[in-house]
UniProtKB/TrEMBL annotation:
Residues 35-304 form the Protein kinase domain. It comes from the Bacteria. The lineage of its organism: Bacteria, Bacillati, Actinomycetota, Actinomycetes, Streptosporangiales. It holds the Pfam family Pkinase. This is Protein kinase domain-containing protein. GO terms for molecular function: ATP binding; protein serine/threonine kinase activity.
Length: 495
């Protein structure tokens, strides 16, 4: 039950005050159940947060979602957000997630703006990480903060939930210096591989693929990889004071991220990032959602980077870190075989694929789990393009090397730390072959719905463009002979 002071006093306070324009305006001293409002903390579009104290002086955060100042449609949306947030708190508990103490419903007919509002009584934080971010200035202790964010995110994902709105303002710093994830109004349960979110989100932290998903009556389909993208963006801010994409407005930065995701611009991270963290963030920001690492993997890797891995696990995690670092430097997180492992699982032992290229081909063919991608397909494409000739040179077409890359195109598919620089021929296989995998991981999702074998469609797009394949709804007749050869070689190379 919520009781109010006299309405005249409340209206007078609202005309003078610090919280004008907030979603909910309350005066100091306003009583909510056993709590008395002691000061305003922050407000968003849909809720306001105040500090409250009980009769013993214990402090808590009071998150209040209004009802009287919104439309019927907005009210339904607010109710759904509130119900999701409460359900998550009841199902998932962890030291890195803000705690919910109780819920209250306002019963105050004398104040229509507040009557019926839901109040979440939560643990009180000192501030959010957004309060610590300064332009171009690293946040002190950023590496530890990132690890603790990963701990909360990995637990959420393991319990079948995704946050949906991870950003510095939704990560709270507690009195003991630890962090807790908060603001679960856009959290969603994962149903199979996806959850569903309304068409909302902070543009700087929303991955480019979000708006490519069709909007259904349940919202946009989303994967937990969207949280990992937001994790990478947040980590970049904490470590450098900068966002990974630079432009004057959030909309322009989102456009830059979308252009990066389709290979039209490189990922240019701040120069002040340490090399290990540069690779870590590039992994979070992998263009293909399926190529991003899990939050649990990033937690392990972050612990290795900071030397905080328990001694008993250090040796094993160094091996994992070495493999992860190699994949992250490639801008992917796929199943890269370790040196010395047999490639017969992926390529026929008696096939004419040169032994010296097999590890690179397997790396390229396992960079992501896109349907159609395989080492056999990559090997077949190389055979059809050049006959495995690393010294191929065709200046008339501006194509070079074992994969017949045009240098001005290859630059978009190099590892993140070199992406954007046009390479000069000859083009070594160590660059050319993994780049084929990056290309396919980026382009195969764009061919969903086009008729035909997905892998062969990708090979055809490599020869022309995914726009042409979508426009013609299949493989153009002029490429059919080339694709028939790719199909024949793939059958020969498949174990």
């Amino acid at each position: 039950m919520l009781t109010s002071p006299d309405i005249a006093g409340l209206q007078e306070w609202r005309t003078t005050m610090r919280t004008d324009g907030w979603a909910v305006s309350l005066p100091v001293g306003y009583r909510i159940g056993g709590w008395r409002v002691s000061r305003p903390i922050a407000s968003g579009s849909w809720a306001s947060v105040y500090e409250g104290r009980d009769c013993d002086g214990t402090a808590a955060a009071l998150k209040i979602m209004p009802t009287g100042t919104v439309t019927r449609r907005q009210l339904r949306h607010l109710q759904e957000m509130t119900q999701r947030e409460i359900r998550l708190h009841r199902q998932v508990r962890h030291a890195r997630l803000i705690g919910l103490r109780e819920t209250l419903v306002v019963d105050d007919p004398g104040c229509p703006d507040l009557d019926g509002a839901c109040v979440l009584v939560m643990d009180l934080a000192e501030r959010s990480l957004a309060d610590l971010v300064r332009d171009g200035v690293p946040v002190p202790g950023a590496a530890r903060l990132i690890i603790e964010i990963c701990e909360g995110l990995a637990h959420l994902h393991a319990e079948g939930w995704m946050h949906g709105d991870l950003k510095p303002s939704n990560v709270l710093l507690m009195a003991d210096g630890s962090v807790k994830l908060a603001d679960f109004g856009l959290a969603t349960e994962i149903d199979g591989t996806h959850g569903y979110l309304p068409p909302m989100g902070s543009l700087d932290y929303v991955p480019p693929e979000r708006w490519g998903e069709s909007l259904t009556d349940r919202g946009h389909a989303v994967r937990v990889s969207a949280d990992v993208w937001a994790l990478g963006t947040t980590a970049c801010q904490l470590l450098t004071g900068r966002l990974p994409f630079t432009a004057p407005t959030a909309r322009a930065r989102h456009v830059a991220a979308a252009e990066y995701a389709i290979g039209e611009r490189p990922l240019t991270l701040p120069a002040s990032l340490p090399p290990g963290w540069r690779s870590w963030i590039a992994g979070c920001l992998a263009p293909s959602p399926k190529s991003r690492p899990t939050a649990a993997r990033q937690l392990r890797q972050a612990r290795v980077l900071t030397g905080s891995v328990p001694a008993a696990r250090r040796g094993r995690d160094r091996l994992l870190a070495a493999a992860s670092a190699a994949m992250l430097l490639a801008g992917t997180v796929g199943a890269v075989p370790l040196a010395g492992h047999s490639h017969e699982r992926w390529l026929r032992a008696d096939a004419d694929v040169p032994e010296r290229y097999r590890a690179l081909i397997v790396e390229a063919g396992t960079m992501c789990d896109e349907p159609g991608l395989s080492p056999a397909l990559v090997a077949a494409m190389l055979k059809a393009e050049s006959g495995f000739d690393p010294d191929l040179s065709d200046p008339a077409k501006d194509e070079y090397g074992i994969a017949r890359w045009t240098p001005s195109v290859l630059r978009y598919y190099l590892p993140p730390d070199r992406r954007g620089t046009i390479p000069v021929p000859p083009l070594p296989p160590e660059d050319s072959i993994p780049a084929v995998g990056r290309y396919l991981c980026m382009r195969l999702p764009l061919l969903a719905g086009v008729r035909g074998d997905r892998g062969l469609l990708g090979a055809a797009a490599y020869r022309t463009s995914d726009d042409v394949i979508r426009r013609e709804n299949g493989i153009p007749a002029r490429l059919q002979a080339h694709i028939d050869r790719v199909k024949e070689y793939r059958a020969e190379y498949q174990p």
